[in-house]
Write a structure and sequence with these properties.
Layout: H1 8-31, E1 35-39, H2 47-60, E2 67-71, H3 76-93, H4 103-107, E3 120-123, E4 142-145, H5 155-166
Parallel strand pairs: 1-2, 3-4
Helix pairs in contact: 1-2
């Protein structure tokens, strides 16, 4: 969400890049049995981007391999507020009793509903913050921070992050 506050020319360039990327990578994603899903307020995207996104998602919908979640116009705080609003409306209408709202019910109303929580969050550019990204979902994720900038992050960097992750003792909040 915060990226909409960047300079207009930068946002326009990023949107054109996104539409082009979706179009050029669609065949490879299909060949690799990848299913695409978008999370965030995608209705805020420019029409030409939304059309390409919808077409790409539809063309890959039958794939059963890896699901690629693309966070677009996404902010975790906005996601949490949107979920709370939907739950409040359901409670107000009597569709849901407030006492029935638990962690699972709340998670079922997030943009990522139906998707497992991440096991690993890789943070590029050396930044030691999560930047309003998947705040609910990363509560037990392992974090790997790398100095490498995102555009330069490659296969060797990914393998190094996976090795760091594999060496960890995951306790999920336990001692």
């Amino acid at each position: 969400i915060e990226n909409w506050n960047r300079p207009k020319a930068e946002v326009e360039t990023l949107m054109k890049f996104l539409a082009r990327y979706l179009k050029t990578e669609q065949a490879e994603m299909d060949q690799n049995n990848v299913r695409l899903r978008a999370i965030g307020q995608v209705d805020r995207l420019p029409g030409f981007v939304r059309e390409q996104l919808d077409a790409t998602i539809a063309s890959l919908d039958a794939n059963t391999g890896t699901t690629l979640n693309l966070a677009l116009s996404y902010g975790a705080r906005t996601e949490l507020v949107d979920a709370a609003r939907v739950l409040a409306a359901k409670a107000q209408s009597g569709e849901l009793a407030p006492a029935d709202i638990d962690e699972k019910t709340f998670a079922d109303h997030l943009y990522t509903a139906g998707t497992p929580d991440p096991d690993l969050l890789i943070r590029t550019s050396g930044e030691m913050r999560v930047s309003n990204f998947l705040l609910w979902q990363i509560s037990y994720a392992e974090l790997v921070v790398t100095e490498r900038l995102w555009p330069d992050f490659g296969e060797a960097d990914f393998c190094a992050a996976l090795e760091a992750y594999a060496s960890r003792d995951r306790r999920f909040g336990k001692v």
